[in-house]
Specification:
Number of domains: 2
Low-confidence stretches: 1-19
Oligomer: single chain
Order of helices and strands: HHHHHH
Helix content: 55-70%
Largest sheet: none
Number of strands: 0
Shape: elongated
Length: about 150
């Protein structure tokens, strides 16, 4: 007969709290058995944008168990919602009468078409002419230098 030390008792109690434990004299929790309802629920929760940790908490299992038993449903749920949204965006982008058609088309082209929105600024002088560049007088330059020296002291 083997006697367990205090460290072994602590380890066993931690395992037992977490639902683990396969040490002599302690029962092991039964393995998780996914049902069709659980699989559908995981797929819907993923499609609604829930995090895997939150889904595991809702079902009452660990994150590791979720990824072990429901990895297919997680992938399929994400793919289904992405395709449904892409379908909506495409439908709106191709319709002539929808009020958001242009925004949907721009979104689709920026994400899937590789388009980028480039913002540029062009400067010009009065009435579209050239910009006048004036030289600073020595007096003005002296005032600026004094101001900068004063700011460095502060």
């Amino acid at each position: 007969m083997k006697y367990y030390g205090m460290e072994d008792v602590k380890r066993v109690s931690i395992r037992k709290k977490r639902g683990r434990g396969n040490i002599k004299g302690f029962s092991k929790t039964p393995p998780h058995v996914p049902t069709d309802e659980d699989r559908e629920l995981v797929k819907r929760l993923v499609a609604f944008g829930n995090r895997n940790e939150d889904i595991a908490d809702i079902i009452g299992i660990s994150h590791d168990t979720l990824t072990r038993y429901y990895s297919f449903e997680i992938k399929v749920g994400r793919a289904e919602i992405t395709s449904r949204i892409a379908n909506k965006v495409t439908t709106r982008a191709l319709s002539d009468d929808h009020k958001d058609a242009q925004r949907a088309a721009e979104y689709w082209l920026s994400r899937r078409g590789g388009w980028k929105e480039i913002t540029g600024h062009e400067l010009s002088g009065p009435d579209g002419g050239e910009i006048e560049v004036k030289q600073i007088s020595e007096t003005d330059q002296e005032i600026i230098n004094r101001f900068l020296a004063f700011n460095e002291k502060i």
